[in-house]
Amino acid sequence: MSKIAFVFPGQGSQTVGMGKEFYEKYDVAKKIFKIADEVLEFSIMDMCFNGPVEDLRLTANTQPAILTMSVIVNEVLKENGLQPEIVGGHSLGEYSALVAADVLKFEDAVQLVHKRGAFMQEAVPVGQGGMAAVIGLDRNVIIEICEKVSKETALVQAVNFNCPGQVVIAGTTDGVAKASDLLKEAGAKKCVILSVSAPFHSLLMKPAADKLAVELDKVMLGDAIIPVVANVSGAIETKAASIKESLIAQAASPIKWEDCIATMRGFGADTYIEAGPGKVLCGFNKRIDRSIISLNVENLESLQKTLAYFKEVR
User: How far is the first Cα of the chain from the last one, in angstroms, to the nearest whole number?
Assistant: First the structure.
């Protein structure tokens, strides 16, 4: 049978109410929310269930909230007989993947991403950096224009290679604005300024990466029990030492999601379950490779649909 991949979403997929249905039905969800609340010393469960949305959008809260939800979905899928043979995650989602692969304990991961979110926010004052999604332009043209703007005006980089026709740029506010103008002149269909509070995955995040390195030194990482695909290289990583290096670099390095999916396809995975809130990765994956079977699990309805699919194909 073909191989199954679990993929885990990043920041931006959060919604008020997420996880509540799983909490009401599955003891494992109650257990994971309880651990998260104890480790964080505030109720991420209450924030997930009730908001307010403004608090859930704060990076230091969003990251542990999505991680907690994604880990719960992973455990619920396992309880229902579905196991991944390879895992990966987009940005923050890489931490969820590492929990699924037994590289990180959940209690360490949830604390790490809470701090990661705070470090990333602190790295660049609000208003001094930004991000934009570039639609409909070749990635090499985007890279070239960003390099030109960085030399002549202000720092801007291509930081998320999400799927063909969608690349996200990040940098200083001036750099993103100038690059957006030039990219539209070069033929981009549009450049959409994103509603984010910092230029994630750009070189401006180096202070966050340095602080994260200190925190990772305090945590025990194990070798992966199943292959994990790293964002920074797009390659499979299984050894704790190399995974740690990738995580440190990831905070201030581009996310190569297209490359990650190419690696998973090469591994033999053709069925992908997005475990966690939203369907963003399902959308990316369909644009990367239309032969991919993309499913998602974010509530009981989508869980039942996914389980029904596997019951049918098996």
Answer: 9
Q: How confident is the model at residue 314 (pLDDT cuts 50, 70, 90)?
A: low
* Structure confidence by residue, pLDDT tens digits, 113-172: 999 999 998 999 888 999 999 999 999 999 999 999 999 999 999 999 999 999 999 999
Structure tokens at 25: 């039905």
- Picking from 196, 230, 254, the residue at the C-terminal end of a domain is 196
What per-residue string of b and e applies to 127-159 under the rule 16 or more CB within 10 Å gives b?
A: eebbbbbbeebeeebbbebbeebbeebbbbbbb
**What is the set of active-site residues?**
91, 201
Q: Mark whether 111 and 97 lie in a shared domain.
A: yes
Among 53, 25, 2, 11, residue whose Cα is nearest residue 303: 25
Any idea what the CATH number is for the domain that residue 164 is in? 3.30.70.250
